[in-house]
Design goal:
185 residues, alpha+beta, eleven-stranded antiparallel beta sheet, 11 strands, signal
């Protein structure tokens, strides 16, 4: 009987531990870019969704601004990753230091286009479509999100960066690249 009581007690304790662990929550920042590549006539040439790396500086900015207890309004901008070489992204990348990739500035927008976001739904926040007006033929490898509007600028915070899942895209002068960004936690 004692053995049976011990077994029942051990089973109840194990069940309580397992049941208690179901309440643990984790949050992970995940981003997805969606692109549409159109030619000068407006014909859709290519579209895709691709995941990206939310870098450490981006995660820190999210945490510092949300949990700081003071009001904060972020101005966010999208940039293009050049495809002259295969890009590599690292969690330690910043706007000032990202050895695995370079920015492509072959578009007529005065600066990096501003990202405007819709209200959050179901733990995700999506931008409205941002249009890059391509004015120099070149190869584009991906996109990045940051807090600086200056093309080629190295100040500000890098939030995320990612490469097209389908490989680099050759864009011609007159093409447009429309990009949306969706961040979920």
């Amino acid at each position: 009987m004692r053995l049976m009581n011990r077994l029942v007690g051990a089973f109840v304790s194990a069940a309580a531990l397992i049941a208690g662990s179901a309440h643990a929550e984790q949050a992970e920042a995940k981003g997805v870019y969606t692109i549409e590549h159109r030619n000068a006539a407006g014909e859709l040439l290519y579209s895709e969704e691709f995941k990206n790396l939310v870098v450490t500086s981006g995660k820190n900015l999210l945490l510092d601004t949300f949990l700081s207890g003071s009001s904060y309004t972020a101005a966010l901008y999208l940039g293009l990753v050049d495809g002259a070489s295969a890009p590599t992204f690292a969690a330690a990348d910043t706007l000032a230091s990202h050895a695995g990739w370079t920015e492509n500035q072959g578009y007529s927008n005065a600066g990096r286009p501003a990202a405007t976001f819709n209200a959050a739904v179901a733990g995700a926040k999506a931008s409205v479509s941002i249009v890059f007006n391509i004015n120099a033929s070149g190869t584009i490898a991906g996109c990045f999100l940051c807090t600086s509007a200056t093309k080629g600028g190295t100040t500000g915070t890098l939030i995320s960066a990612g490469a097209f899942a389908g490989g680099n895209r050759l864009l011609q002068s007159g093409d447009t690249l429309s990009v949306t960004y969706n961040l979920s936690v």
